[in-house]
Design a protein that fits this description.
135 residues, alpha+beta, Aminopeptidase, 20% helix, 50% strand, globular
C-alpha cells in the first residue's frame, strides 16, 4: 500500500495512505522520536449535501494527556485539509463512557453531539459533525 510522509509544523508529520482505495490522513506530533499525539481523518463512504465526509479519530500518549494535545492534533489536521479541499465535513462517533474524548469533541465541534448507538460495539455513543469550508 503506497503512503507518503510530509513534514508540517516543527513537531508534526502528515502521513497519507489509501487503505481499500479510500483517502486517509494521519497527523502525528513526534518529539525526540516519540509519538505524543495523533489524529486521523478517513474518507467515509457517501457524501452529505454533496460534500465529502471524513471520520476523525484522535489519541494522546498517556503521559501527555490533559495538555490540549488532542485538540491541537485535530486542528493541525483540519488546517492541512483546508489547504487541500475547499469544503468537507469532519465527524466523530464516540462512546458515551469515553468521557475524555467526549469532552474533546464538545470543544472541537462546539456542540453536545447527537445520541445514537455505535453499530460496531452496540453501545450508546455520541455523534458529532462539523462543516469545514475554505474562505
Amino acid at each position: 500500500m503506497p503512503f507518503s510522509f510530509v513534514q508540517l509544523q516543527s513537531d508534526y508529520k502528515m502521513i497519507y495512505d489509501e487503505p481499500s482505495g479510500k483517502r486517509r490522513f494521519w497527523y502525528a506530533k513526534i518529539v525526540n522520536g516519540e509519538v505524543r499525539a495523533l489524529s486521523t481523518f478517513g474518507l467515509e463512504d457517501g457524501t452529505y449535501n454533496q460534500t465529502d465526509r471524513y471520520s476523525v479519530n484522535y489519541a494522546v500518549t498517556e503521559n501527555y494527556r490533559g495538555h490540549g494535545l488532542a485538540i491541537e492534533a485535530v486542528n493541525i489536521g483540519i488546517e492541512d485539509l483546508r489547504k487541500r479541499l475547499k469544503r468537507f465535513y469532519v465527524e466523530a462517533l464516540i462512546e458515551e463512557t469515553n468521557v475524555s474524548s467526549v469532552a474533546v469533541a464538545k470543544k472541537l465541534f462546539s456542540g453536545i453531539g447527537t445520541a445514537t448507538i455505535d453499530e460496531v460495539s452496540r453501545k450508546p455513543a455520541l455523534f458529532f459533525y462539523k462543516l469545514i469550508e475554505f474562505r
